[in-house]
Structure formats: C-alpha cells, structure tokens
Amino acid sequence: MESLNSLINIFKGFSIFSVIDILVVYFIFYKGYSLIKETRAEQLLKGIILIFLLIPVSDLLNLTMLNWILENTLTISVISIIIIFQPEIRKALEHIGRTSFVDKIIYEDEEIMIGVVNEIVIAVEALAEEKVGALIVIEQMTGLGDIINTGTKIDGDVSSALLQNIFVVNTPLHDGATIIRNDKIVAAGCFLPLTNDDKLNKQLGTRHRAGIGVTEVTDCITIIVSEETGVISMALNGRLLRNYDKEKLRNVLLKIMRNRQSNKDSFKERVKLWISKKDKM
C-alpha cells in the first residue's frame, strides 16, 4: 500500500508542464543520439556509459583502486566529452543555427531559380561530355564564408559559359571548388574539407572526398564531375549519389530548392497568421 500511495503521489504532482518537460528532454536525447548514430562517437558514448555503470559496481565489490580511478576520471569527463564529440557538437549547433526567421536561399521569383539551375546543368553536362573534372558547391542555409575566403573572389552571374571556363584544365582555378550563392558565382579555386569516411570507395579521388566532406559539416549541395569517367555525382548530407544525367540532375536540384522555398514561405505565412490573431485579441 505504501508503494501504491507513493506512486499516486507522484502522479498527483504531474501537470501538463511535466509532460512537456519529459517530451522535450526525450526529444533532445533522441536528436543527440541521431547525430552520432553509426559513427565512431557512438562507440565512445557506449564506453562512457560503461564507466558510469562500473562506478557503483566497483564500490559494491570493494574494488578500491578501480573505484578511485573511475571516480577521478569523471572529474575531467566534461572536457573529455567536448574534445571527443567536437565534430558532433559542431554539427548539432550548426543544425540548430539553420532554423532562422529569414531563409538565406532567396530568389526573387521562380524564374531566377530555374534559370540558375539550368545554367548549372548545361555546364555540368558539357564538362561531363569532355571529361573535365569539376566541383561545384551550392550554398544553402549554412554560410560558406570561411571556404570562400580560401579561393579567388569572382562575384559573377551564374552562367554555363563562366562555369565551363573556370574548369578548363591547367587554368589557375580549375583544381578547386566553385561556390555558388543564390544567383552568383562568388568564388572559385576554393579548398574544401575532406571526408573521414573510411568506408568510401577507394577508387574515388580527392575531388569526390572533398565534395562529400563539405556536406558533412554544412547543408550545401555539391556537384562533382569525374575527370576519369565523366560521371556526374551529387553529395548531400554526407552521402554521395552517382550516375546523374541532365534531366535527373535538373529535377533533383529544383526539388531541393523548391522545398526550401516552400518551407520558408509557409513559415512566413504562419508568423503572419499568428500576428493577425494577436492584433484581433
């Protein structure tokens, strides 16, 4: 009866805010685990949990030396976790930072967006036919200013002719990445971070590894043309998708950009609706 009364008292103290509190904490832990799932950090997390479980066990079994080592290890655990999970923490903070009131990918109308995509696709198809290696990065929510600063500023309108000219073999800018922001080619010859994925096909070279690497730390879209085979690939969210043709590439790019534009517009409509309701109150 005492246990039952204790359980009843616990539930009596519950309110809608208690439920919200539990759901928020659950969501945070779920999203945190999703970020490190199937990565090396997941194994490290399991090791840290094991240490936490061993402390009471070692105390119960009077394993004095082991208990002392484990307890002292916890005194530096916070710093250790920050160092160990630095890539995952950065990824999580960037993901949170992408939620903003104004979407960075803004086109005045759909015609401009379609025009940009068409110019990119025409250039990529021509480069693929000539087997000219290319690496094109399309900025989205996450700013690429630090990467842009590693290359040569251009700030020219997106055009297939300019893109093809940038990647002409043995020219100063052909060997780096070209960055596109909205309807402008902002820089070329930029350096990208390489992926650390050891499961990647060994036949893929530095251009593909760089194309994947930048999408692991930002939400950009990367288009890669193989110099050896002329195969067109796309990297997004750390994944490489290969064997694109002209129409498939165009449709995928338009779908991604339209979805982002649609999400931005729907968010603005919700804000306007909320403000109008407030004004009527």
CATH topology of the largest domain: YojJ-like (1
CATH class call of the largest domain = Alpha Beta
Q: What is the helix tally? A: 11
**Residue ranges: pLDDT <50 for 5 or more in a row?**
270-281
- Count every beta strand, where a strand is a DSSP E run of 2 or more residues: 7
* Strand order, sheet with most strands: 2-4-3-1-5-6-7
Radius of gyration: 25 Å
CATH superfamily of the largest domain, by name, is: DNA integrity scanning protein, DisA, N-terminal domain
What composes the largest sheet?
Answer: 7 strands, mixed
**Strand composition percent:** 5-15%
SSE run: HHHHHHHEHEHEEHEEEH
Q: What is the subunit organization of this protein? A: single chain
**Helix/strand class:** alpha+beta
Task: Give a topology summary.
Layout: H1 2-12, H2 16-36, H3 40-60, H4 64-74, H5 77-84, H6 86-97, H7 110-129, E1 134-138, H8 145-148, E2 152-157, H9 160-166, E3 177-181, E4 184-190, H10 206-217, E5 221-225, E6 232-236, E7 239-244, H11 246-280
Parallel strand pairs: 1-3
Antiparallel strand pairs: 1-5, 2-4, 3-4, 5-6, 6-7
Helix pairs in contact: 3-4, 7-9, 7-11
Give a written overview of the molecule.
This protein has 281 residues and is an alpha+beta fold. It folds into two domains: 2-97, no CATH class; 110-265, DNA integrity scanning protein, DisA, N-terminal domain (YojJ-like (1, 3-Layer(aba) Sandwich), CATH 3.40.1700. 58% of the residues lie in helices and 14% in strands. The protein is built from eleven helices and seven strands. It has helices at 2-12, 16-36, 40-60, 64-74, 77-84, 86-97, 110-129, 145-148, 160-166, 206-217, 246-280, and strands spanning 134-138, 152-157, 177-181, 184-190, 221-225, 232-236, 239-244. It has a seven-stranded mixed β-sheet with strand order 2-4-3-1-5-6-7, with helices on both faces. β6 (232-236) and β7 (239-244) form a beta hairpin. α7 runs antiparallel to α11 (246-280). The radius of gyration is 25 Å and the shape is elongated. The model is unreliable at 270-281 (pLDDT under 50).
